Amino acid sequence: MADDIGETGNWDQGTGNREQRTRMNRLAIGQQVASDMTSASWIRAMFEVGQKLKAQHGAANVFDFSLGNPNVPPPAAFFDALRRLANEPDPAAHRYMTNVGFAATREALAGFLSHEYRLRFDPADIVMTCGAAGGMNVVLRTLLDPGDEVIVLSPYFVEYRFYIQQCQGRMVLVETDRDCQPDIGAIEAAINERTRAIIVNSPNNPTGVVYPEARCRALGDLLRRHDRPERPIYLICDDIYRRVVYDMERCPAAAEHYARSIVVSSFSKDLSIPGERIGYIALPDTTPQREQLMGAMGMLNRTLGYVNAPALMQRVLPECVEARCDTAFYRGNRDLLAGGLRRMGYEVPTPGGAFYLFPFSPIADDKRFCDLLMEQRIIAVPGRGFGRGGHFRLAYAVERETVERSLGGFEAALRAARER
Ligand SMILES: Cc1ncc(COP(=O)(O)O)c(C=O)c1O
């Protein structure tokens, strides 16, 4: 870890002391990335601690809730499609293609999305991308000029900071309310003439919170009031967990409440295939100037170095786009973990989706509490790593047994916190 460049990682040429500056100047890498590596290190740091503990105590005796890595198998339809494609080789299918992706894939996806959302999607307005991460980078680069501001609701998925920074944009963090729901008044107060976009992510990482219909509508109303044709404000919907929801038939969609919306998503979570890097950007037919946006996004997919989304995965998709991994397994983990913690005395909001719990830390210092958990060989990430102290995040895409066997440790850590 690049810990030797300072605690906070907020390196500033003007304020760093001489010794720090000298050390920075000797780095083999750029100062910006050195600083970023430090500030981005919470999840990685906890993950690495987990790896060490596993080496010491054996993997089965460490309860690692640090990473949101889907652990249920992909659906059978995915493997069926892979097998069929391998059995019917097509030498031409592995070549370069148009940067936005195969027509058949975009056609299938447009049909699927037009059913999933109360919106219409045209195949011509879809770009296949290298995951949602690739999609977010393409969208932000498409929209931002240097100095443009992007509103991000905190707590937040920390990678957004780097995506925005890579476009020389400025991330403006706006706190959500105590329930981690968008605070419409606070968002309004943050909007100014440099505001170019707002990113929303529901179900949310790190909280698992789902934004209800009324809040999505209020957000749309707000953006409409502030949108101006000469410098539009875009709503970027990171909908990657949209199909991982538990107590509702259908996840409300912010994109349905504001015309200038851009949906970014992937199959990383609902098909359980994050390693395959297959995602997309989709413009609903309400979004103005789609042709211009698509032209820019197609070019940027190439010039940012992605070129196009993986060809094999694009060919698999039409056969399994409607399938979904077993999200009931995650619900079982959620209920077991949230219920168990609550009975012990933890304050645990029930998340409506994704596979994260974001309980309140029993002591104000969330890092200190994660240390107490670690003494029980439980790896959690302090809320401050996502912009909100006083919480900790548990990624419960883990074996059921891990949850079951961890509960005693959570109880002991709570006892220890109360005693100190
Ligand atoms: C909120 C959020 N957005 C985007 C991503 C990136 O997803 P992908 O694997 O599709 O690039 C993740 C991954 O965990 C995420 O949690």
Which terms would index this structure?
420 residues, alpha/beta, Aspartate Aminotransferase, domain 1, Aspartate Aminotransferase, domain 2, 2 domains, 3-stranded antiparallel β-sheet, 14 helices, 12 strands, 41% helix, disordered N terminus, binds pyridoxal-5'-phosphate
Blueprint of the fold:
Elements: H1 18-25, H2 31-39, H3 41-57, E1 63-64, H4 76-87, H5 103-116, E2 121-129, H6 131-143, E3 149-154, H7 159-166, E4 170-175, H8 184-190, E5 195-200, H9 213-226, E6 234-238, E7 261-266, E8 279-284, H10 290-303, H11 311-320, H12 327-344, E9 356-357, H13 366-375, E10 378-379, E11 381-382, E12 392-395, H14 400-419
Parallel strand pairs: 1-10, 3-4, 3-5, 5-6, 6-7
Antiparallel strand pairs: 2-8, 7-8, 9-12, 11-12
Helix pairs in contact: 4-11, 5-11, 6-7, 6-10, 12-14, 13-14
The structure holds pyridoxal-5'-phosphate.
Pyridoxal-5'-phosphate (PLP) is lined by residues 68, 131-133, 157, 201, 205, 238, 240, 266, 268, 274, 279.
Describe what this molecule looks like in 3D:
- The protein has 420 residues and is α/β, with parallel strands linked by helices.
- The protein has two domains: 40-72 and 326-419, Aspartate Aminotransferase, domain 1 (Alpha-Beta Complex), CATH 3.90.1150.10; 76-320, Aspartate Aminotransferase, domain 2.
- It contains 14 helices and twelve strands.
- The protein has helices at 18-25, 31-39, 41-57, 76-87, 103-116, 131-143, 159-166, 184-190, 213-226, 290-303, 311-320, 327-344, 366-375, 400-419, and strands at 63-64, 121-129, 149-154, 170-175, 195-200, 234-238, 261-266, 279-284, 356-357, 378-379, 381-382, 392-395.
- The strands form three sheets. The protein has a seven-stranded mixed sheet, with helices on both faces. Strands 9-12-11 form a three-stranded antiparallel sheet. Strands 1-10 form a two-stranded parallel ribbon.
- Helix 7 links the parallel strand 3 (149-154) and strand 4.
- Helix 13 (366-375) crosses helix 14.
- The relative contact order is 0.15.
- Residues 1-15 have low confidence and may be disordered.
- Bound molecules: pyridoxal-5'-phosphate.
